[in-house]
Design brief:
By secondary structure, the protein is an alpha+beta fold. The chain folds into two domains: 3-158; 183-418, paralog of FGE (formylglycine-generating enzyme) (Alpha-Beta Complex), CATH 3.90.1580.10. It is built from ten helices and twelve strands. It has helices at residues 2-6, 16-31, 50-64, 79-82, 107-127, 132-157, 225-233, 245-254, 291-300, 308-316; strands at 183-186, 189-193, 209-213, 216-219, 262-265, 268-273, 276-279, 348-354, 380-383, 400-402, 411-412, 416-418. The strands form four sheets. A four-stranded mixed β-sheet has the order 10-9-8-11. The longest helix is centred in the middle third of the chain and has 26 residues, at 132-157. It binds fe (ii) ion. Fe (ii) ion binds next to helix 6. Fe (ii) ion (FE2) is lined by residues 56, 85, 141, 145.
Length: 419
């Protein structure tokens, strides 16, 4: 498995065909070792069964590419309802909170569906009749679902007292000489924000525009578990004045007292992850926290969450490398070294920026216009990618977005302050 996940193929491949095969195969590799039962269950409305992810990513290619072709024979027209996520312009999707009820088609039938779509796609690519732009969206879409596939399974498995590991790992600990938290300051300046014309980007990253960045200071690494424990022992979860009103209401409702997947045993904190239950690593970046918790922590620390443009500005100057899916570490790890650390990988970093259209935003044409734009309400931007993000999905301009109460993704924080 390691060979293929680590392979620098996918989108850099010399041919569109090998890029397609590499991305599609990786989804199958991620499902290796999981049973039909593992892949059928749904643990909450926000998460989908693994089987659904495998089918939906195939439906995407079928619906937006193959069905446009006259010689394509539809695999099963009912799949249009079952495996459409939210594209109202092309049909009525099956209710998301009930995806766990889809016991038919079976896993085997879904795998057959994948193979069927792949066969037509490969044939079309060989004949040169596949729309390159839409296929590229389809590959990036599938990479997004590879991350969701894992985080949804993590949420599902966390409910099981057997605490099963989704993946095996022997390298979940970071270095002994973990980086200290330092600060770097940056002057006021006008910077370019958003994706340029080179390479792939989603519509929400465009257009590239100028932004006046005020002087700011940024922590050189994300907040770690030891620092989060300090926040907890100093009344972080019991002091309402640290919290936004919505955040405090959410805390009352949920009873949060620690990040998701933490549990205490014999005075020791443990953390459930894709690699099973592990002793909490104090130096690793804290993860599975909501926006509300991140904001309360920043308030407690006398700092603030970064703005999305601040993190994008730093990312523009940073080489894209880090603890991504390809490393197969399956959890955020401490890093060593000096200077700005972990801008990419490990944890998605919450920003205080609402997910809103940039000046001049134009949604993608057609049904794909529903991809991002209609979600620009009540969500916050996260930057940088996580330990289960495929590296090729990531770039400085990438804007992830989640609701402020959500914490089943690998979400963490880095502190910023005004200068
Ligand atoms: Fe999707």
């Amino acid at each position: 498995m390691a060979d293929t996940l680590n392979a620098e193929t996918t989108l850099q491949s010399p041919s569109r065909l090998s890029a397609f095969r590499a991305v599609r195969q990786r989804s199958m590799l991620l499902a290796e070792g999981l049973s039909a039962e593992d892949l059928a269950a749904q643990s909450m409305a926000d998460a989908s069964p693994g089987k659904w992810h495998l089918a939906h990513t195939s439906w995407f290619f079928e619906k937006f590419i193959l069905r446009e072709q006259s010689d394509y024979q539809c695999f099963n027209p009912v799949f249009d309802e079952l495996f459409n996520s939210y594209y109202l312009s092309v049909g009525q999707p099956y209710a998301r909170p009930q995806r766990g009820l889809i016991t038919r088609p079976s896993l085997q039938e879904v795998l057959d569906y994948r193979a069927y779509v792949d066969e037509y796609m490969v044939r079309g690519l060989e004949r040169g009749v596949i729309d390159d732009g839409v296929m590229t969206v389809g590959l990036h879409h599938e990479m997004q679902h590879q991350e969701l596939f894992l985080t949804d399974l993590l949420h599902l498995f966390s409910h099981n007292p057997l605490k099963p590991a989704v993946k095996k790992s022997d390298s979940h600990r970071g270095p002994a000489d973990a980086a200290a938290l330092q600060w770097q300051t940056f002057d006021e300046q006008i910077i370019p924000i958003g994706a340029g014309s080179e390479g792939f980007s989603y519509d929400c990253e465009r257009p590239n525009h100028r932004h006046l960045l005020s002087a700011f200071a940024l922590a050189t690494r994300p907040i770690n578990n030891a620092e989060w424990l300090e926040f907890m022992s100093d009344g972080g979860y019991t002091t309402p004045l640290l919290w936004l009103s919505d955040g405090w209401a959410c805390l009352q409702k949920t009873g949060w007292r620690a990040p998701a997947y933490w549990q205490q045993a014999d005075n020791e904190w443990q953390q459930f992850g894709l690699d099973g239950l592990q002793t909490l690593d104090p130096k690793a970046p804290v993860t599975h926290i909501s926006y509300y918790e991140a904001q309360a922590f920043a308030h407690w620390a006398g700092k603030r969450l970064p703005r999305e443009q601040e993190l994008e500005f730093i990312a523009q100057q940073t080489a894209r490398s880090g603890n991504f899916l390809e490393q197969e570490r399956w959890r955020p790890c401490a890093s060593s070294g000096t200077g700005m650390q972990q801008i990419y990988g490990d944890v998605w970093e919450w920003t205080q920026s609402a997910f809103l259209p940039y000046p001049g935003f134009v949604a993608e044409q057609g049904a794909l216009g529903e991809y991002n734009g209609k979600f620009m309400s009540r969500q916050f931007v996260l930057k940088g990618g996580s330990c289960v993000t495929p590296i090729e999905q990531m770039r400085a301009s990438y804007r992830n977005f989640f609701y402020p109460h959500q914490r089943w993704q690998f979400t963490g924080l880095r502190l910023a302050s005004d200068v």
